Amino acid sequence: MNRIIDDPDDVVEDALVGIRAAHPDLLVGTDHPRVMRAAGPGNAGRVGIVTGGGSGHEPAFVGYVGPGLLDAVAIGEVFASPTARAFEAAFKAADGGRGVACLYGNYAGDNMNVKMAVKLAARDGLTVKTVVANDDAASAPSHDRGRRRGVAGEILMWKTAAALAAEGADLDAVIAMAQKTIDATRSVGIGLSACTIPAAGKPNFSIADGTMEVGIGHHGEPGIAVRPIEPARAMASTMMDTVLADLPFGRGDDVAVLVSGLGATPVMELYILYRHVAEILAGAGIRVRHRFVGNYFTSLEMMGASVTLTRLDGELDRLLALPARSIGLTVMGDA
Amino acid sequence: MNRIIDDPDDVVEDALVGIRAAHPDLLVGTDHPRVMRAAGPGNAGRVGIVTGGGSGHEPAFVGYVGPGLLDAVAIGEVFASPTARAFEAAFKAADGGRGVACLYGNYAGDNMNVKMAVKLAARDGLTVKTVVANDDAASAPSHDRGRRRGVAGEILMWKTAAALAAEGADLDAVIAMAQKTIDATRSVGIGLSACTIPAAGKPNFSIADGTMEVGIGHHGEPGIAVRPIEPARAMASTMMDTVLADLPFGRGDDVAVLVSGLGATPVMELYILYRHVAEILAGAGIRVRHRFVGNYFTSLEMMGASVTLTRLDGELDRLLALPARSIGLTVMGDA
């Protein structure tokens, strides 16, 4: 395992020390060692936006804290949910007096800990409402969306909800916006290699050389098919077939597209994939309004990529364009 | 080779199609298929800033085209110099009537092709002056800087020179600023795994599992030592020993720090490395004014990282802080 780590059991703590040192303008620590909040004046009078999740997906989750995006984040061990106490502390860190929206991904541990944290916060008079992202179209059939995992589409949900909160919307409106965004969002991933959690020392799943796993999850969860590696054009077709049919997206739609590397895929290859995604969308009469290509939501050093599409109405389109600044996503606005 | 490509011989062209599709606000094509220039109003009345280099280092080089950064870029095949004609076309694309600064890295092919392109441009009355980056402290002894390679430090040279050009400085002043920046910059890399050029299909060098190559180049050029993998803290010490002693940097210095992944190293590990770099600098009485941590200058799917330090005076410090926008680097400014 050729990695840049010290004690494999301490990678999260060690990385957080580095993140705090590197981005004092964006992030500050809190009383809880696994919670960070946005630097700056805080969000008094605004709805707070919180997420949380396991480490190893950087820049998700901590890398989306900043102006116009998340107010606080709860940080888990590698590929593991933050604790209920961490979520609770994140809620308090994000509390600006108008309630907190916790927008997170659909995983058993996160569901359990968020639920507990919401109760803990309620005892202290803090109202927290939640939206559970389930954009991974390959993780369960469409009639069973409640079982689907949340993946890179979470980023778009954070963006629209946070932009609305910044405009002074109340908690119910912010929650409705996050729900609307994720309901209009579908993702799918392809894995080309496994990854290794440092504390485990070896992969807990495998992808044979020369094969790819269509529909793989962000922690190596099994996909819907293992196939011989295809050219990028065919990979894009497979991914877009899954995503487009699911919502479904159709002619005349406006969309945002996010192509994210899973960690080790060269950036030039993400653009090769995007080329085909864009061509398929053009051929289907779907107009791309926002494009994001890069390592936005990773799985340690896994090779592969995910494609996320969000169908936009005028309001989603507008909110995505508003300024935001964070490690993972900076939007300059139209200024 | 588990990669997201179509024909391995076409990866550069295919990626450029994707880049153009993804970033119409930042980049546009030119008459030359391997030259892209900044979108927008052009740079009439300003010195043009150009670089060029092989592909496979994304976001370098094309990802640094944009406002406050490069005006045009010449793009080579994977790990190969752009042609002289491509450099010449990039000079013309960046010509705003006040001459062009070509700021590139010290490699035999690039040196030859830039030299030829400068002559070709001169025949058409276009003045191009050059600065050759040689920040890789491990690539030759300090008394022989002329043989050293240019690596991630180029990004800081582009930033300061472009910021000065944007203020209306003349060509000689822009060239002097680029030279001053690279003269104050030192880098070193550590490689933890090899990488594979798609058209070759297998690595052209190897790093045995459990070992690391200190001083590795961006194309797998041999380093100064192959050692068993060390903890991140020791890796940072080794790298900083090389860099700090070389300029040398010393107590009371202000610096910019750039920690770049080489492609496949998880982002959390870059922050673990940065933690130690920051601690070593603090211990040495060196103040960090600008920090960059991420995949800024990569080598396909190589594992490993580079550390770059630039010693700042007030002017370098000021120019690094001015706004810029590109795929690889966005600086919001102090607004």
Which labels suit this protein?
homodimer; 335 residues; alpha/beta; Rossmann fold; Hypothetical Protein Tm841, Chain: A,domain 3; six-stranded mixed β-sheet; 8 helices; 12 strands; kinase (chains A, B)
How would you explain this protein's 3D organization?
Two copies of one chain form a homodimer. In chain A, 31% of the residues lie in helices and 22% in strands. The first copy, chain A, has 335 residues and is of the alpha/beta class. The first copy, chain A, folds into two domains: 8-183, Dihydroxyacetone kinase, domain 1 (Rossmann fold), CATH 3.40.50.10440; 185-316, Dihydroxyacetone kinase, domain 2 (Hypothetical Protein Tm841, Chain: A,domain 3), CATH 3.30.1180.20. In chain A, β5, α3 (108-123) and β6 form a beta-alpha-beta unit. In chain A, α6 (232-246) crosses α7 (267-283). Chains A, B: InterPro entries: DhaK_dom, Dihydroxyacetone_Kinase.
Structure, briefly:
The structure is a homodimer of 335-residue chains. With 335 residues, chain A is an alpha/beta fold.
Per-chain topology:
2 copies of one chain form a homodimer.
Chain A: H1 11-22, E1 27-29, E2 35-38, E3 48-55, E4 72-78, H2 84-94, E5 100-105, H3 108-123, E6 128-133, H4 154-166, H5 171-183, E7 185-191, E8 211-214, E9 225-228, H6 232-246, E10 254-261, H7 267-283, E11 287-294, E12 304-312, H8 314-321
Helix pairs in contact in A: 2-3, 4-5, 6-7
| Main sheet: strand order of chain A | 1-2-4-3-5-6
Structural class of chain A: alpha/beta
> How large a portion of the residues of chain A is in β-strands, by DSSP E?
15-25%
Instruction: Say which CATH homologous superfamily of the largest domain in chain A is assigned.
Output: Dihydroxyacetone kinase, domain 1
What is the gyration radius of chain A calculated from CA atoms? 19 Å
Question: What best-fitting shape of chain A do the alpha-carbon axes yield?
Answer: globular
Poorly predicted sequence stretches spanning 5 or more consecutive residues of chain A: none
Instruction: Please count the beta strands of chain A (DSSP E, at least 2 residues each).
Output: 12
On the 0-100 scale, what is the average pLDDT of chain A?
Answer: 97
Which H/E pattern describes the elements of chain A?
Answer: HEEEEHEHEHHEEEHEHEEH
Per the CATH scheme, the topology name of the largest domain in chain A is Rossmann fold
What percentage of residues of chain A falls in helices of 4 or more residues?
25-40%
Main β-sheet description of chain A: 6 strands, mixed
CATH domain class name of the largest domain in chain A: Alpha Beta
